[in-house]
Amino acid sequence: MAGSLALDMERRYQGGAVVRAALEVPLEPPGVTVLFGPSGSGKTTILRCVAGLERPDRGTIRFGEEVWTDAESGRHVPPQRRRVGFLHQEPALFPHRSVRGNVAFGLRRVPRDERRARVAELLERFGLAALADRRPGQLSGGERQRVALARALAPSPRLLLLDEPLSALDTPTREELRLELRRHLIDAGVPSLLVTHDRAEAMVLGDRVAVVIGGEVRQVGAVEDVFSHPVDAEVARAVGVETVVVARVRERHDGLLVLETHGRRLVAVDPGLAGEHVLACIRAEEVVLRLEEPVAESARNHLAATVVALRREGPLDRIVLDCGFELTAVVTPEARRELGLEPGRRVVAVVKAPAVHCVPRGPWGLAWGA
Amino acid sequence: MDVQALGLTLRLASATTGVLFALGVPLAYWLGRSERRWKVLVEAVVALPLVLPPTVLGFYVLLAISPRSPIGRWFESLTGSRLPFTFRGLLVASVLYSLPFAVQPMAVAFGQVERRMLEASWTLGEGRLGTFLRTVVPLALPGIVTGAVLSFAHTLGEFGVVLMVGGNVPGETRTISISIYDHVQALDYGAAGETAAVLLAFSFLVLAVTYALQRRAWATWPGR
Amino acid sequence: MRWLRWAAAAVVAVASLCGAAGCGGAAARGPATPVLRIAAAADLQYAMGELIEAFRAEHPGAEVRVSFGSSGTLFAQLENGAPFDLYLAADVAYAERLRDEGLVAPGGVFTYAVGRIVVWVPDTSTLDVEGLGMEALIQPSVRTVAIANPDHAPYGRAAVAAMRAFGVYPRVKGRLVLGENIAQTAQFVQTGAADVGIIALSLALAPGAGGRWWEIPAEAHPPILQGGAIMRRARDPGTARAFVRLLQGPVGRRILARYGFEEPS
């Protein structure tokens, strides 16, 4: 089955705010789609409409063959019949139940033995076995969010919805939990929709990203595409101007990584935690262009490239290069004239190793891996 | 010591608490969670017995349930018996009189249950009734218990309303507070004091035990 | 919520200022004109206005203040030092008991009227109470009969005695509902909650009471002897005595008779 979650909806609020979303999320293979955008852009509203916790004023939400919401006909499948998992920003654990009781909550209709086995398996998988009899009040923030995830996955949801699941945590815990969350989401094999306003989180967790600005979905695509090629200036402002490529780790030594991407080698600083794959990010401001290969230089990465396109951007010119992958640089108009940068011109792009920022990733989703 | 009056009073307080529980929980849930604007009107009506003098409230109840009123006629045609000066009539009046004491703490407790708790329950596949029973009620339990105990204690000491609609029939409507009052009026202060002491001790016991239980209930929920 | 706290504080402040002013005013007025403070039984409610008017006609400048209540409640208050000069009870027994406790001025106990009771129904009732008399109480259509509580209300005691005298008490007993005082008993009947009642003639004659009644013969029950007492701690016993003289004199008798009180023999 190649079904998808298809939204075409509008939600109006008193006071004039409107959230519109036209979006199609493939369900097979099950990856993580990130709704990314600044705070207040309407991401959470979209998520809540998908969960059935809010009703769109116009349009439809379909899940595969099922119509979940159709504002025209008034059809609205209540949340309890959508079989989705939902994670709140602050984990909404039931304070009167133990960790075990929370995880078992959605399994009321499952026979007792089966339920016990399922709960035990989940507690084990999420490293919660030792905490099974604790109350939520006795847990740390990270533990609470793990319980919430285990609880949401217990009844085998068809879709997992996560609303800024890591934002309530302190910074070290959050960074630690990012990779773990990615692993759990891929292991669970459930298509997921995740809301975040944090770029790093979007890149670590997402296979695909939908950029939401001012109540509208502006761009949808693979994470590296959207972050490398924002469709317009507004999206660019939201995601930052940057080249993002998927790279494989070839070597690691002395705190450095040697990466390979599109047949080219890149030297970067090892951020730790990295597995076999990383997202390599290079900001346009940190790319230096020159006409010939230098004899000796401190910068480690010298990439032969061809100018593909030029675009005037404020006081600077934005140069799009092809060096096996697409790389963006910004230069002053004076530098452009001196170097004679025109489409087709061959140059060398120079990038220092610390300017190649590596975002570690857990396992790749099946659809959009490198 | 009027043992019959004490027994009757306990029966009345239990019945009132039972009726208020059945009536008050849904009403309080609606008051606690509804976002309708005219909710304030219902809230005001529920709170009226707090400000109306009990004798005034009792007088209007008496008018309302008298066999000459439509309600009284309807009840008589339905059951063949009348409401004034009967236990059932007293029960009606007591329920009205203690309504705010039951509903207000319950409504506050229901209102404090966070919406995300309900949402979490729904998205875990639980319907509205299941969510109410498995999540809302346990979370609002201290408020529900407080409401029930206040109704009970309030009915124990109720005087003005009983005086107005009761008619002082032994074993039927002569409650302990009426009995105390009669003793005072008959200048039998000894008997009055004795009965009052029993009422006081009993009320104190009920309240103390409830608060003790509530502390324990809260202590096991450190998450709140 | 802050404004609420301020509002509450303002209300308390204003109330205490008014209270202080009120006290000051009373203190200033106190010594100038003597005030006669009367504690009166509830059945005098309607007659009292005319009685005071008549008293003020005889004693210009005198000021009278009345508090109404049940005889028993007023008794308990007087026993505990309530500031009254004159006590007008529905039963002389209360006054005698105060005297026994040493709270009454020498020779201060007096009687001023005899109460009468009637079998009473409101205008809306179909019961032929005038024709049936005491028999009205045992009609099959009658389910509840209201009387005052015989344990402590004089009119209740008289009602029970009268029912006994007519031989209907055993059959009425199961239908009795008891009013806390005679006024509440009348209320039970007037609201229709009780079918018929035995109440004071003074209430049946009260302005706006309406209703129909049958007067129970005075011989059917021990007399309801209404009496009172001049308190030992009366500030101005002379004025109190003057009011009692009026009550017992021809002017007072005329007024009381109009409100259903007979002369004590």
What would your notes on this structure say?
- The complex is a heterotrimer of chains A (about 375), B (about 220) and C (about 260).
- Chain A is an alpha+beta fold.
- Helix content of chain A is about 25%, strand content about 35%.
- Chain A contains nine helices and 21 strands.
- In chain A, strand 8 (about 160-165), helix 5 and strand 9 form a beta-alpha-beta unit.
- Chain A starts with a strand and ends in a 10-residue tail after the last strand.
- The model of chain A is unreliable at about 365-370 (pLDDT under 50).
- Chain B is mainly alpha-helical and about 220 residues long.
- Chain B contains ten helices and no strands.
- Chain B has helices at about 5-35, 40-50, 55-65, 70-80, 85-110, 115-125, 130-155, 160-165, 175-185, 190-220.
- In chain C, strands 2-1-3-10-4-11 form a six-stranded mixed sheet. A five-stranded mixed sheet of chain C has the order 7-6-8-5-9.
- The radius of gyration of chain C is 22 Å and the shape is elongated.
- The N and C termini of chain C lie far apart (about 70 Å).
- Chains in contact: A-B, B-C.
Looking at this protein, list some descriptive labels.
heterotrimer; A: 370 residues; alpha+beta; six-stranded mixed sheet; five-stranded antiparallel sheet; 9 helices; disordered C terminus; B: 224 residues; mainly alpha; 10 helices; 0% strand; globular
Major sheet strand order of chain A: 7-8-9-3-10-11
Number of alpha- plus pi-helical segments of chain B: 10
What does the radius of gyration of chain A come to?
23 Å
| Straight-line N-to-C gap of chain B | 46 Å
Oligomer: heterotrimer
Q: What's the number of helices of chain A?
A: 9
Query: Helical percent range of chain B?
Result: over 70%
- Helix share bin of chain A: 10-25%
Number of strands of chain B: 0
Low-confidence stretches of chain B: none
Structural class of the secondary structure composition of chain B?
Answer: mainly alpha
Shape of chain A: globular
How many strands, which pairing sense, and closed or not: the largest β-sheet of chain B? none
Proportion of residues in extended strands of chain B = under 5%
List low-pLDDT spans of chain A: 365-370
Order of helices and strands of chain A: EEEHEEEEHHHEHEHEEHHEEEEEEEEHEE
